[in-house]
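Subject: design request, 164 residues
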């Protein structure tokens, strides 16, 4: 199948479900870190598969150019500021927008010790340089799991622990 056709198919499916493709190993790893708060949850697809105590927020929960309307799991309107109301929850970020401060703003207000991050590594197409600088300064990679990937993408599931 030509790359353009694959890219078109990827766009249809990411808008319908999620940017990252979950698998059982990743879902099990996330389940071990509950309770959770997810910022940038989109349609709540990953949350619906987890079946755990998770609260989901997105700045545009009714859909936007990256996410079709409709939900798989309840998603409330909100962004990084919602973390302050849930200090006892593990933060989960799934494909935070590229070159956007959302992920770094989340880390700046998050006081917990575990971060679940699903996306590409530093220099990839998720998060911003401030996010990766904060990761380097204060976090240690505890686990990395390979996810099913679209052609040309290199995303995975990272579990980071805050440096002592």
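Subject: RE: design request

Done. Sequence follows.
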């Amino acid at each position: 199948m030509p790359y353009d056709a694959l890219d078109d198919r990827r766009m249809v499916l990411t808008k319908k479900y999620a940017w990252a493709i979950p698998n059982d190993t990743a879902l099990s790893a996330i389940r071990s870190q509950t309770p959770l708060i997810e910022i940038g949850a989109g349609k709540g697809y990953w949350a619906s598969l987890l079946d755990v105590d998770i609260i989901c927020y997105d700045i545009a929960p009714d859909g936007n150019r990256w996410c079709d309307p409709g939900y798989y799991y309840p998603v409330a309107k909100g962004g990084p500021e919602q973390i302050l109301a849930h200090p006892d929850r593990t933060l989960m970020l799934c494909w935070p927008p590229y070159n956007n401060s959302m992920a770094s703003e989340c880390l700046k207000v998050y006081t917990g010790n575990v971060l679940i991050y699903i996306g590409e590594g530093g220099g990839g197409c998720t998060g911003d340089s401030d996010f990766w600088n904060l990761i380097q300064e204060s976090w240690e990679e505890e686990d990395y799991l390979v996810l099913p990937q679209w052609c040309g993408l290199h995303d995975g599931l990272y579990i980071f622990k805050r440096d002592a």
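Residues 83 and 154 are 28 Å apart (CA to CA).
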